[in-house]
Specification:
With 78 residues, this protein is mainly β. The chain has strands spanning 4-12, 17-26, 36-45, 51-60, 68-76.
Length: 78
């Protein structure tokens, strides 16, 4: 069993763009594996009327986390 805690903040830069910051901590998933701590920085862009594109880069702060991650996503808003 693993537990995860994440905190996120959005900082509006313009009407269509916001800066995203996230911190995440996850306890060890397996015996002998360290907990994973990561920081993420990215941009949300409301590119379409009901759609949003996010680009972000995350970096691991502990040995249990990936060294880095590059994320690109699309979200349909209701």
């Amino acid at each position: 069993t693993s537990f995860e805690l994440a905190v996120s903040a959005l900082f509006p830069l313009a009407n269509q763009v916001s800066l995203v910051g996230e911190a995440q901590v996850e306890t060890a998933r397996f015996d002998g594996v360290e907990a994973a701590t990561q920081l993420l920085v990215g941009v949300n862009w409301k590119a379409f009327g009901r759609g949003m594109i996010r680009g972000a880069v995350a970096g691991g702060l502990t040995d249990g986390a990936p060294n880095y991650r590059v994320l690109v996503g699309y979200a349909y808003t209701f």
